[in-house]
């Protein structure tokens, strides 16, 4: 579908429209851009309406034309921004001569814009897209789509269910227990996880215990009247009662029929919470102990429908032994399910790609059963599995299973979902990186009361709830740390991205001849980059491999990326900042993480749209003064540390110049080394949007200013403070008094930041704190946790506190504590944690188990 191109371009239109008055381009151009926005909006609505409709070839051609026109609009608007007057690209008083020369040249290029827009409008008029698409959509709306009503063919027999014994027994207990009220049970899992087979197996074995029973499949856009009629008919059939003519009020008839009956109803494949509520409202909720079982792909829907969390059953795939057994049964039917030793290695590699999904296992194994049992045949299927799941191929049933989930996504979610095709297989992606990329691409819609990053995190959570994205690692605060898409889901996303010309992956280009590359992802190096496509319209470039790249190739590539918004060079083998980057004036995201560069040029000031600058784990120790002109910066990440060390001793911050307070859009700033400029700490108080702040090597005069500055940061989630001068102890108040007023603080790390002998966490302070790290408090001999303080704390680290000999008083009140780490602490402190010690008694009620590490540290682990 073309809605991806339309959605992406609409994001850009909003940015351009808001800037046209500032650029003073005149009313005509503003009107023309407005017409394009109106057309795109109408196309977006029409395309979504057509999503579930079967289309003929003529309609598909017109949809392709919509996509091409949308991309043409994106190109024109980006070039409009590229050639805007220079003074609007930088927040400074520029060199007048240079500005005049720049504007004279670009005014020539801008002069061509109206004619280009007019050419696009002629295309729109000639193909007659608006009237044709709307008319066809309206004519088709009366009939339900055959695509939507298709049910995935059943290829897994009921008697082949493996690994579901425990959840099956629990479901049977819940289904058969006698209760006075009606109960709703949810079964949730991704497409192909075996939800329907699992429920049908239990349903068929226990439906006889109920007075009446019915199984109905709920389509994505069902008609409640038709569904009620279907339920009534099936309930009557279950009791062999004749089905009369359709009554005038089917809902009343259904309620009357079920009023005194104990019934069981399966609602298969529910998509939305409102749908479940709507259906339950037409059913009687008497005292007969009836049961409703809901199957869904959405975890949020499952939780909403079920009566309690205990009535939610999650099917997330088979464990390896059961997956292997099922695979061998299907693949080696002529060998009684025994895998030949010569094929075992490739069989396991293929099975690993299925990630425990029964439908995928059965489909792949069934295909293998028809092939010769040769290693080469197995290897060929392993290497071509992605192409086999595409429509009309041998494993198209897998893509057919995923397609409804994809179609049910909103345009915003769909765009973000396709973005996973950029990353290599089996690659876990950090939440922060993904969110910053989505924001930089312009995929995130502004929502009142939330930052763009918060909205983007909502998008990610919804994709996870829909079982399309899996969590690889959780943070202590309950947020996603890393995520990935399953292997076969990624293959599906890759070919959908190819259909949309959304991403081109090299060295296997998936862009048709003549099409311009929009996003470029290089996975395994590319020695024929020049022959791989037209890069003049590339918006994003990711280089995951540098094999075959020479410096001239790289520079030539950058030179062709004039419209680039995202450049990710993480782990690149470079030791100097590439000069060509500063000419990419539309750049919004730049990552040079894990490179060896040691200097950033002053010319970076040209990147006036830059939102993210990621220089973590580089050798940069000082940022140029002109970086303070980048007023769009939201994330400035610059520090280096020894990843093999557990404390902050090896952390190296970066020096910045006075004026940092002008970057008022900053949300993440770490790690800053104020050096001799004490004014910087005061300026931090202007950064009220900060959610993360890291400071290192503070001086004695910084303490008071820091306390005052952080009190303005009401959104602050993480604060890292390292190496404050010993003179801070001369302050009249403890630093915690300022920090405890931060309402959203989740993580607090302090190293060498206090020289008092007693640290008190006041009652009911730090209500949201999840992680606390205290290190090198040399004079500290007592920590007190008063009632209600740090009530959500999950991880506590005590390190190198030379005279602290006992656990914090009140630690037994930390009922959510999962991890207690003590490194390089005095022997007396460690000895008090032994089994019969006084301090051990204090933590006996904590939900963990205390263990001793080889290095002498103590660790409290989750049970």
UniProtKB/TrEMBL annotation:
It comes from the Eukaryota. Residues 1-19 form the signal peptide. Gene3D superfamilies: 1.20.5.4130, Helical domain of apoptotic protease-activating factors, P-loop containing nucleotide triphosphate hydrolases, Ribonuclease Inhibitor, Winged helix-like DNA-binding domain superfamily/Winged helix DNA-binding domain. Residues 165-335 form the NB-ARC domain. Residues 24-88 form the Disease resistance N-terminal domain. Residues 553-723 form the Disease resistance R13L4/SHOC-2-like LRR domain. Keywords: ATP-binding, Leucine-rich repeat, Nucleotide-binding, Plant defense, Repeat, Signal. The keyword Ribonucleoprotein does not apply. One of its GO terms (molecular function) is ATP binding. Residues 422-493 form the Disease resistance protein winged helix domain. Pfam families: LRR_14 (PF23598), NB-ARC (PF00931), Rx_N (PF18052), WHD_DRP (PF23559). GO terms for biological process: defense response to other organism; defense response to virus. Belongs to the disease resistance NB-LRR family. This is NB-ARC domain-containing protein. It comes from Nyssa sinensis.
């Amino acid at each position: 579908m073309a809605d991806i191109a339309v959605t992406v371009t609409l994001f850009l239109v909003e940015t351009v429209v808001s800037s046209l008055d500032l650029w003073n381009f005149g009313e005509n151009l503003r009107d023309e851009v407005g017409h394009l926005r109106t057309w795109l909006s109408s196309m977006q609505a029409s395309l979504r309406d057509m999503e579930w409709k079967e289309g003929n070839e003529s309609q598909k051609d017109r949809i392709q034309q919509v996509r091409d026109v949308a991309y043409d609009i994106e190109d024109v608007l980006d070039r409009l921004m590229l050639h805007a007057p220079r003074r609007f690209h930088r927040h400074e008083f520029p060199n007048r001569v240079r500005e005049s020369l720049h504007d004279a040249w670009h005014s020539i290029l801008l002069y061509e814009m109206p004619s280009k827009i007019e050419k696009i409008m002629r295309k729109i008029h000639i193909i007659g897209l608006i009237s044709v698409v709307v008319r066809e959509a309206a004519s088709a709306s009366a009939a339900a789509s055959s695509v939507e009503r298709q049910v995935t063919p059943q290829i897994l027999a009921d008697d082949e269910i493996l690994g579901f014994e425990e959840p099956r027994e629990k479901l049977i207990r819940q289904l058969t227990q006698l209760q006075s009220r009606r109960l709703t049970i949810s079964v949730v899992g991704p497409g192909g996880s075996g939800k329907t087979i699992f429920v049908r197996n239990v349903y068929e074995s226990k439906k006889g215990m109920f007075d009446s029973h019915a199984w109905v499949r709920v389509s994505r856009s069902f008609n409640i009247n038709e569904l009620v009629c279907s339920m009534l008919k099936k309930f009557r059939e279950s009791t062999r009662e004749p089905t009369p003519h359709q009554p005038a009020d089917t809902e009343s008839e259904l309620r009357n029929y079920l009023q005194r009956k104990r019934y069981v109803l399966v609602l298969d494949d529910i998509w939305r919470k409102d749908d479940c509520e709507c259906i339950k409202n037409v059913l009687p909720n008497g005292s007969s102990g009836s049961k409703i079982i809901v199957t869904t792909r959405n975890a949020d829907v499952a939780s909403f429908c079920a009566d309690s969390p205990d009535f939610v059953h999650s099917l997330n795939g088979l464990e390896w032994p059961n997956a292997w057994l099922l695979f061998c049964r299907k693949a080696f039917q002529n060998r009684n399910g025994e895998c030949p030793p010569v094929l075992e290695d490739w069989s396991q590699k293929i099975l690993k790609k299925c990630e425990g999904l029964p439908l995928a296992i059965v489909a792949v194994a069934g295909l293998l059963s028809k092939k010769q049992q040769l290693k080469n045949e197995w290897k060929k299927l392993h290497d071509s599995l992605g192409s086999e799941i595409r429509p009309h191929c041998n494993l198209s049933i897998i893509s057919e299973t995923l397609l409804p989930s994809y179609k049910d996504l909103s345009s915003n979610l769909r765009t973000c979902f396709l973005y996973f095709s950029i990353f290599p297989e089996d690659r876990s992606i950090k939440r922060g990186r993904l969110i910053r990329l989505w924001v930089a691409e312009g995929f995130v819609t502004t929502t009142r009361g939330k930052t763009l990053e918060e909205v983007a995190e909502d998008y990610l959570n919804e994709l996870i709830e829909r079982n399309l994205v899996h969590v690889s690692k959780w943070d202590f605060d309950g947020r996603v740390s890393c995520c990935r898409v399953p292997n076969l889901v990624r293959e599906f996303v890759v070919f959908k991205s190819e259909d949309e010309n959304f991403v081109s992956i090299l060295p296997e280009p998936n862009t048709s001849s003549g099409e311009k590359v929009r996003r470029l992802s290089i996975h395994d190096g590319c020695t024929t980059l020049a022959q791989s496509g037209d890069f003049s319209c590339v918006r994003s470039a990711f280089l995951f491999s540098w094999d075959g790249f020479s410096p001239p190739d790289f520079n030539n590539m950058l030179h062709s990326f004039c419209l680039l918004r995202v450049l990710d060079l993480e782990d690149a083998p470079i030791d100097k900042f590439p000069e060509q980057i500063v000419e990419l004036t539309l750049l919004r995201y730049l990552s040079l993480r894990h490179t060896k560069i040691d200097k950033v040029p002053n010319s970076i000031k040209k990147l006036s749209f830059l939102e993210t600058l990621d220089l973590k784990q580089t050798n940069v120790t000082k940022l140029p003064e002109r970086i303070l002109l980048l007023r769009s910066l939201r994330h400035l990440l610059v520090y280096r540390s020894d990843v093999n060390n557990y404390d902050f001793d090896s952390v190296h911050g970066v020096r910045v110049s006075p004026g940092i307070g002008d970057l008022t859009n900053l949300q993440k700033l770490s790690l800053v080394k104020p050096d001799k400029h004490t004014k910087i700490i005061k300026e931090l108080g202007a950064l009220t949007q900060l959610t993360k702040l890291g400071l290192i090597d503070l001086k004695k005069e910084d303490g008071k200013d820091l306390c005052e500055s952080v009190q303005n940061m009401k959104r602050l989630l993480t604060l890292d403070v390292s190496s404050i001068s010993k003179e801070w102890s001369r302050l009249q108040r403890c630093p915690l008094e300022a920090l405890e007023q931060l309402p959203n603080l989740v993580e607090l790390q302090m190293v060498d930041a206090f020289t008092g002998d007693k640290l008190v966490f006041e009652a009911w302070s730090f209500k949201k704190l999840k992680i606390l790290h205290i290190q090198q408090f040399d004079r500290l001999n007592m920590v007190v946790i008063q009632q209600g303080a740090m009530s959500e704390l999950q991880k506590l680290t005590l390190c190198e506190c030379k005279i602290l000999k006992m656990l914090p008083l009140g630690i037994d009140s930390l009922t959510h504590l999962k991890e207690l780490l003590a490194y390089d602490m005095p022997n007396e402190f460690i000895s008090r944690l032994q089994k019969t010690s006084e301090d051990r008694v204090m933590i006996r009620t904590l939900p963990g188990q205390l263990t001793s590490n080889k290095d002498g540290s103590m660790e409290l682990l989750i049970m």
